[in-house]
Design brief:
Number of helices: 6
Radius of gyration: 20 Å
CATH class: Alpha Beta
Number of domains: 1
Oligomer: single chain
Number of strands: 12
């Protein structure tokens, strides 16, 4: 009888613990936005600060209030450049706060520009009808197999390019490369799905920024994170892409997809201080 009572207590404690962990995953961690800061090319002098956001996935569970708080947090970092690597809405057909999202993103401040690419959910759910105009109204430059020159305060020229979404768009790396010349002090390419980074391995690109994976969104110790299409090889953080110093960074995103929970993968703002 004593052993039975002990087993009952253990089971009850485990149930309580599981309940607390589930509550944490749904109610706490999705609101615990963290900033991950990195210094690149540290041997050089002047620097430019780039902040990357990805997979905001505005929905009924990621509210406009949360988006506004995110904008305030980014602005406190005083970025020179802001980049967004896709998936603004979770499902636009189900939740359409168009003007509120536009107003919020308009408040992001970056003196050298704000840039974005298409994600699969920016094409899906009816978002393709509004995504381009929304970003334009919020002062973002949408890059689709194209790139732009960014002239820095020290006179040096930075390249920022963007590849179209790999699942629902028409990515064309060859077209992107036509926008590049040999004058750049540093070359950055944005894309949504990280596994497409392999297409750039033999190019002069210095840094690739991607998202899409959510880092698996729920990570359980000793268990491989759940992967998704075109985010099976590269899941989160930095990867060395070739022997010439090219790096890929996979941002684990802000919002959630399918289930509104995160566990051991808090929402992420990535901040890169690149010395040029």
């Amino acid at each position: 009888m004593k052993i039975f009572k002990m087993l009952v207590k253990i089971v009850l404690l485990l149930m309580i613990l599981i309940g607390l962990l589930i509550g944490y995953a749904f109610k706490v961690e999705p609101k615990m936005t963290v900033v991950h800061s990195y210094d690149l090319n540290e041997d050089n002098g002047e620097s430019v600060k780039i902040v990357q956001l990805s997979d905001i996935q505005v929905s009924e569970t990621y509210t406009i209030e949360q988006l506004n708080n995110l904008v305030k947090k980014v602005n406190k970092l005083s970025p020179d450049i802001i980049v967004f690597t896709g998936d603004l809405f979770e499902n636009y057909s189900m939740f359409q706060p168009l003007q509120e999202v536009t107003n919020s993103l308009s408040n992001l401040k970056a003196p050298f520009g704000k840039f974005a690419v298409w994600g699969n959910r920016d094409y899906g759910g009816g978002a393709s009808r509004v995504y381009e105009d929304l970003l334009k109204d919020a002062d973002f430059t949408l890059l689709k197999n194209s790139g732009v020159d960014v002239r820095l305060s020290n006179g040096k020229k930075l390249f920022i390019g963007g590849v179209d979404d790999g699942l629902l768009g028409n990515p064309n790396v060859e077209r992107l490369l036509t926008y590049m010349d040999n004058d750049y002090v540093y070359e950055i390419v944005l894309m949504h799905e990280p596994d497409m980074a392999d297409l750039l391995k033999n190019t002069s690109v210095d840094l690739i920024l991607a998202g899409h994976s959510h880092g698996g969104q729920i990570q359980i110790p000793f268990i491989q994170p759940i992967s998704t299409s075109l985010a099976e090889k590269y899941i989160e953080g930095f990867y060395s892409m070739n022997n010439n110093g090219m790096q890929l960074y996979v941002n684990t995103g802000i919002g959630t997809s399918r289930i509104a929970a995160r566990f051991m993968v808090p929402p992420e703002i990535a901040e890169f201080t690149i010395h040029l």
